[in-house]
Design goal:
The chain has 2 domains: 45 residues, Herpes Virus-1, CATH 3.30.40; 79 residues, Winged helix-like DNA-binding domain superfamily/Winged helix DNA-binding domain (Arc Repressor Mutant, subunit A). Strand 1 and strand 2 form a beta hairpin. The chain has 149 residues and is α+β, with helices and mostly antiparallel strands. The protein starts with 14 loop residues before the first strand and ends in a 20-residue tail after the last helix. The strands form 2 sheets. Strands 1-2 form a two-stranded antiparallel ribbon. Strands 3-4 form a two-stranded antiparallel sheet.
Length: 149
């Protein structure tokens, strides 16, 4: 299946296959000169998958920020606070629980309270979600070889 970011879904140029979703994209649309470009990584992830991953990471970072700067008053409240549906908020709460960022305190059989876990181990885990790293987003024009292949 061709699913290129250019939205022209026919294979008239070199193509790259995403190792995550198996869709094909035009090599040049992915920012590479040809399929012989040495910058193509061993494991290639298309821009569409990267965008989805980045969107999920951004949403989880927002949830972490709410957790440590406010108080999660419930799944429905978190959904409204983050601007997502309740089902998405439920999955976020489950991940926060599984990752050890929150604990449940039962007020009674029907009410729960979510409390942020604050200790050194959790602090290190939070920092990992906010680590950017040294990502090279673009190449200076002087680094682009204009020699014919």
């Amino acid at each position: 299946m061709i699913n290129c970011i250019c939205r022209i879904n026919h294979s008239d140029l070199d193509m790259l296959q995403c190792d995550k979703c198996n869709a094909w994209s035009h090599t040049v649309c992915c920012g590479f000169f040809s399929n012989n470009d040495k910058r193509i990584p061993q494991f290639y992830t298309c821009n569409i998958c990267l965008d989805n991953d980045i969107s999920r990471l951004a949403l989880y970072r927002r949830a972490l920020s709410v957790n440590y700067n406010e108080e999660i008053l419930g799944v429905g409240w978190l959904g409204k606070r983050l601007g997502v549906k309740e089902g998405v908020a439920r999955r976020i709460v489950k991940k926060l629980l599984n990752d050890g960022f929150i604990e449940i305190i039962a007020l009674n059989t029907r009410q729960r309270k979510y409390v942020a876990v604050k200790n050194e181990n959790v602090k290190k885990k939070v920092k990992k979600y906010f680590y950017i790293g040294k990502v090279k987003h673009s190449l200076p024009i002087k680094d682009i070889s204009m020699a014919k292949p």
